[in-house]
Amino acid sequence: KLPIIIDTDPGIDDAMMLTLAFANDDVLDVRLVTTCSGNISQDKTNYNARTFLSYIGASVEIARGLEGPFFRELEVAEDIHGESGFGNVKFPAPKLPVSERPAITAMLETIMTSDEKITIVATGPLTNVAALLLAHPEVKPKIERISWMGGAAVGGNMSPVAEFNAYVDPHAVEIVFRSGIPIVMSGLDVTHKAFVTIDEAENILRIGGEFADKAYQLVTYYLDVMKKTPFHEENYDQVLHFHDVCAVMYLLNPELFEGQNCHVVVSLEGITAGATVVDYTNRTDKAPNVHVLHTVNREQFVAEFMKAVEIISAR
Ligand code: BDR
Ligand code: CA
C-alpha cells in the first residue's frame, strides 16, 4: 500500500477527494489527516474533516494545522462552500477526536517513524506543508512526493491569474516549490477538465443510500453556487469541477493524466500574487521542479469516482 498523509480544508471537493482516498484503502494507507485553513477557518476545516471521516467510517488521526497563511490575512471561500464549508448539508457530530499532536508534529513523527517514504496529498493552501519543511528539513528525503491541487498555468479563479490555494498562501507555495521534493501540480489547467456533468451527478443519487444522497446534495449545492457566479468560463453552470479529487486520482490512476515537467515559480505580491508561472517552453532554461498536469481522461475519471461512492455507500 502507498503510505500517505492528507492535508486538506474540507470544503466540498475536499470531501469528494476524501471519499476517493478512503474508498481505495486497499491501495492507499492514509496514515494521518491534517487540516489547513483555506476554504473556511481552521476550526471549521478540522471539524468538517472529523465529521465527514467519522460519517464514512474512517479510522484515522486528524490533526489541527495552522490558523492561516504566513504573511497574508486568511481569505476564505465561504461564497463557494457555504459558511460551514459543506453548504447546507449536515452531518452527525464527529466521533473522531482532534489529535493531541498539532499537525506539524504529527506530520514530522509520522514521516520520521515510517520505514517507507511518505507521499503527501495537499488540497488546500500549503501553509502546513511549508511550515513542516521549514521547521524540520530532515523530513525531505523521507517524502516520496507531494501531490498538490493548486495553481494554474493559465488563468485563475481568485484573480485573473491566481488559483485559490496558491492565492491564499503564495509564500507557502514558494517554500514547497523550492524544496527539491518531487511535486505533482493538479492546477486549474487539468482540474477544469476533471468535471462531472449534471446528468452524471444524478447517477450519484441512483447509487442509493444515505451516503450517496449526502454526496449528491454536496455536489449540487456547489453547482447551484456556480450557477449564481457571474464571472466564470463557459459551462461553469452546468458542470462540477472536481479539483481536489485530481490530487488523489493521480496517485491511484496516473495513466488517466498527461503532464509535463516544468520549472514553476510563484508570484508573491501585488496584482499577480499567487500566480504560478509555468515555463512550458523552457524559456528560463531552469531545471524542472514540478510535474504539471494538463490533461485527464474525463470519462474514466468520472467512472473511478462513481466506483468510490458505490464502495463507501455499501459499507
Ligand atoms: C481549490 O480551491 C478550493 O475552494 C477547493 O477546495 C480547491 O482546493 C480550487 O481552486
Ligand atoms: Ca480544497
Automatic annotation (TrEMBL):
Protein name per Swiss-Prot or TrEMBL: Ribosylpyrimidine nucleosidase
Gene Ontology terms for molecular function: purine nucleosidase activity
Upper taxonomic lineage: Bacteria, Bacillati, Bacillota, Bacilli, Bacillales
One BP annotation, GO: purine nucleoside catabolic process
Family annotation (InterPro entries): Inosine/uridine_hydrolase_dom, IUNH, Ribo_hydro-like
Family annotation (PANTHER family): INOSINE-URIDINE PREFERRING NUCLEOSIDE HYDROLASE, NON-SPECIFIC RIBONUCLEOSIDE HYDROLASE RIHC
Alphabetical UniProt keywords: Glycosidase, Hydrolase
GO cellular component terms, semicolon-separated: cytosol
Keyword Cell inner membrane: no
Pfam family of the protein (one): IU_nuc_hydro
Domain named Inosine/uridine-preferring nucleoside hydrolase: residues: 4-302
